[in-house]
Amino acid sequence: MVRWLPYFIAGRYLRSRKSHSVINIISGVSVAAMATPVAAMVILLSVFNGLERMVRSLYAAVDADITVRAREGAVFDLSSLDMEALRSADGVEALSPVLEQGAMAEAGGRRTIVRLRGVGPDYVRVVPVSDHMYAGTFAVAVEDARSAVVGHRTAQELGMSRQAAGDTVAFYAINRARFSSLLPVGGYTRRALPVAGFYSIDDENGDVVYVSMDEAQRIFNYGGRASSLVVKVAAGADADVVAERLQRLAGDGMEVLTRERSNSIYRLMALEKWGIFAVALLVLAVASLTVVGTIVMVMIDKRDDAATLRTMGVRRTAVRDIFVGEGHLLSAVSLVLGLAAGVGITLLQQTLGLVRLQTQTLMVDVYPVELHVTDVVLTAVAYLVVAHVVARLTVGAVLKDNGTI
User: Fold this and answer.
1) Which of 40, 89, 95, 266 has the most beta carbons within 10 angstroms of its beta carbon?
2) What tens digit of pLDDT does each residue of 261-301 get?
């Protein structure tokens, strides 16, 4: 039999009136039942794409493309590294040392614990935290003047408003050179700095206070030391390749991590996305079982036609292919409807923002979605594989139990 003939006959069966109207109703229900999880898979994967994009945009203001830190110990000596070689390495656009430790901040009689982060002059080229200023400017060192840039959470706990730029904040940190657990009085360093501005990213990073690198080294008594180096990768360069290059320059005593490796939230989101895909695929497999009843009823309804074809000399495998083709056509219709619904709803949300977030803690007010062609293709392929297996097993089982077809 010609390869396309089973699908031609299956198409005629699909369009023709059935002897029992209930078969048409069940066929419509089957198509809708199979189209729904297809649309849901496209929408769910798009939602996770949007959430991942939102998280990346949020963390881009605090996470560098590449972080270099000591394998052992909290700090390392900057003189132990060839800084010029690291800065001039192929694929490196900018590099800045960072020294971060815990400290106590005091202003207006109120105190709070902060993460005091000393940064170099090129830090804003590496991490665009200056794009998130809501008052003042990101200026931690201007000529001989030194100042601090305060996060919104620290500002709230210290009772500082956006008009407080220029006010003084005092920082207290343990002085490792003279601290004694027996006589702790005087075993700390105090430094008062004017506030240059305030920034807001998210609550998790709202307690970071930025100061100049030399100021942090003075407060923590870590002269010439840093806790990490942060690197901005040049446009078009591969972060993993640049990280390997920096690892060779930094040596075995240092650890070079890309953003994905240094922050586990990216790996967690990827695992969640494919976990949801696996669950949705299971739901899709269960929904595809609705086609079983439709195929069985069509086979019973067209039993006389099948017997006629057998009398005309058509092989049993060709008859099987006709009813498998019927299942394929039903699946194709539901696939087209499901993809159209999923892609349409996703694009409407992506362009018009129909569903909005009722929260003031995030930087977006529209539920984030992002449609990827690869997700649509993956959904279609997975669905077609499941539908083919179900249709073939169903037809094979019916033909095995019914010798008249």
Assistant:
1) 95
2) 776 677 777 788 888 888 888 888 887 777 776 666 665 55
H or E element, residue 1: none
Q: Are 38 and 338 in contact (CB under 8 A)?
A: yes
pTM of the model: 0.67
Q: Distance of alpha carbon 368 from its chain centroid, rounded?
A: 11
Q: Helices then strands (H, E): number in the chain?
A: 13, 14
CA distance 79 to 82: 7
Measured in Å, how far apart are the chain's first and last C-alpha atoms? 17
Phi and psi at residue 368, to the nearest 5°: -80, 130
The alpha carbons of the chain give a radius of gyration, in whole angstroms, of 32
Neighbour tally for 220: CB within 10 Å: 24
Residue 373 contacts residue 275 (beta carbons within 8 Å): no
Which one-letter DSSP state was computed for residue 131? Answer: G
**H/E segment holding residue 177:** none
pLDDT in tens, 337-348: 999 999 999 999
Residue ranges of the alpha helices (H) in 74-161?
83-87, 123-126, 152-157
Tokens for 239?
Answer: 């972060």
Where do we find the tokens 């023709």? 16
Between CA 360 and CA 175 the distance in angstroms is: 39
CA-based nearest residue to 379, from 29, 37, 47, 32: 37
Nearest Cα to Cα of residue 228 among 75, 4, 350, 33: 75
Nearest-angstrom CA–CA distance, 125 and 114: 24
